[in-house]
Design goal:
This protein is an alpha/beta fold and about 450 residues long. Helices cover about 50% and strands about 15% of the residues. It folds into three domains: about 5-155, Beta Polymerase, domain 2; about 160-290, Rossmann fold; about 345-445, no CATH class. The protein has helices spanning about 20-25, 30-40, 65-70, 90-100, 110-125, 130-150, 160-170, 185-195, 210-220, 230-235, 290-360, 365-395, 400-410, 440-445, and strands at about 5-15, 45-50, 55-60, 85, 180, 200-205, 225-230, 240-245, 265-270, 285-290. Belongs to the glutamyl-tRNA reductase family.
Length: about 450
């Protein structure tokens, strides 16, 4: 008898890992990752989640050691400190935290809900979603929705990038406008994503390393182009908004870059500065620096941290519910196995008893029913106490008792091996001499 599968998980995310490590862990895509995990020994279900800030995988196995071994293939080349391994309860809780936005780079951000749904569908298409992971992901999405409907975890702006876009919208009409994001790091990514939710018609991502700029450009639905920093002189004069967020020690935008600008809002969220303060002297150029944004983000971050505590209370409540359901399922599996095995023995022994009684002079229908009822009553009374014990064991996290019951009541336990000539060896090998091999034999005596 198999146990109800347990979840094992592994996470490579922004809180511990670099962008390159996250990409290395999830380089094959969700479907390929799920297919690979399903091919591993003991893996019954698999789910993968891959975004720019995290690469994660979850498997369901009957033995937790099989889950641990299977997930060793997920991020083999990523340093150990960047990898977080999760047991069953940790996996369930972590998925809820991810869905609610508590594990996001921007606390409470909404995009992760859609990403989690998409990952579920892709994993399902790859054959990875079964009853355990379906319950786990569905519960996580439910928690994510509750977090956003019952708290203000996603209200306001937290990142400097999103604050910059919000500030720009108060200065100019971004409808059909052109925006330039300078820098392809985390702040540049957040700025580009926030711009993607506005009415701008074009986003240009400029970066020293063009492939990194291309990566950011591919993350947005708005038409986007990646260019090197050397092209700034050509693209800035046509822009309506510039958000600068590189890690350069020296300014990358000077007054001469904006000589032909007409009406331009330039927001410098880099530290040290990306934009020479003298650029503000150019006609038509409005320049804001990081000091203009920090107060806005500080107030919103503090507010969201208060809401995060409310979200954690929701997670505690929902985690307890799913764990209780899981415990009941584990106990029910053992109880079902116990009754199924007992019913098979009962049916076999009733048939033998009735056959022998028939040979002694025949039975009426009422007598046959009496024998069957007696057998049912014996099974019910004998298994009542073990049933209570198994449910108590589940409630107390006594998995060893449940595992023992599952082994004792394996579906094959009451099917004796064949003896010489194909006859069944019904009596246990260690049975004392003269012991009856069935209830029917007792009736013969």
């Amino acid at each position: 008898m198999k146990e109800t599968g347990a979840v094992s998980g592994v996470s490579v995310a922004h809180s511990r890992a670099t962008v390159d490590e996250i990409e290395a862990a999830g380089g094959d895509g969700v479907r390929a990752t799920v297919s690979d995990l399903l091919a591993r020994d003991g893996v019954e279900e698999a789910f993968a989640l891959q975004t720019c800030n995290r690469s994660e995988a979850y498997v369901v196995t009957d033995r937790t050691v099989d889950g641990t071994v299977a997930l060793e293939s997920f991020a083999p080349d990523v340093r150990g400190g960047a990898v977080r391994r999760l047991d069953h309860e940790e996996s369930l809780e972590h998925l809820m935290r991810v869905a609610s936005g508590l594990e996001s780079l921007v606390l409470g951000e909404d995009q992760i809900i859609g990403q989690l749904r998409e990952a579920h569908e892709e994993s399902k298409s790859a054959g990875g979603i079964g009853p355990v992971l379906k319950d786990a992901v569905t519960k996580a999405l439910h928690v994510g929705e509750r977090a956003r409907n019952e708290t203000s975890i996603n209200e306001g702006v937290v990142s400097l990038g999103s604050a910059a876009v919000r500030l720009a919208a108060t200065e100019i009409d971004l409808t059909d406008g052109s925006a330039v994001v300078i820098g392809a790091g985390q702040m540049g990514m957040l700025a580009a994503r926030t711009l993607d939710d506005t009415a701008v018609s074009e986003i240009v991502v400029a970066n020293r390393t063009v492939p990194n700029a291309e990566f950011v450009a591919e993350e947005v639905d708005t038409p986007a182009e990646a260019v090197p920093l050397a092209d700034l002189r050509a693209v800035l004069p046509d822009a309506d908004l510039v958000i600068a967020a590189t890690g350069s020690p020296d300014p990358v935008v000077g007054p001469d870059h904006l000589a032909d600008a007409d009406r331009l809002v330039c927001i410098d969220i880099a530290q040290p500065r990306d934009v020479d303060p003298a650029a503000a002297d150019r006609p038509g150029v409005t320049l804001y620096d990081i000091d203009a944004l920090e107060d806005v983000t500080r107030r919103t971050r503090e507010s969201r941290e208060e809401e995060a505590r409310r979200v954690e209370s929701i997670i505690d409540e929902e985690l307890d519910r799913i764990l209780q359901a899981y415990k009941r399922k584990r106990a029910d599996d053992a109880i079902s196995a116990m009754y199924a095995g007992a019913d098979r023995v009962k049916a076999r022994e009733v048939d033998r008893a009735v056959s022998k009684l028939e040979a002694q002079g025949g039975l009426t229908d009422d007598q046959r029913e009496t024998v069957a009822d007696m057998a049912d009553a014996l099974v019910g009374q004998l298994l009542a106490a073990p049933t209570r014990s198994l449910r108590d064991a589940a409630g107390e996290d006594d998995w060893e008792t449940i595992r023992t019951a599952l082994r004792l009541f394996d579906p094959e336990f009451d099917m004796p091996p064949k003896g010489p000539g194909g006859a069944s060896d019904d009596a246990p090998a260690n049975a004392p001499a003269g012991a009856p091999d069935s209830v029917a034999e007792e009736l013969d005596d």
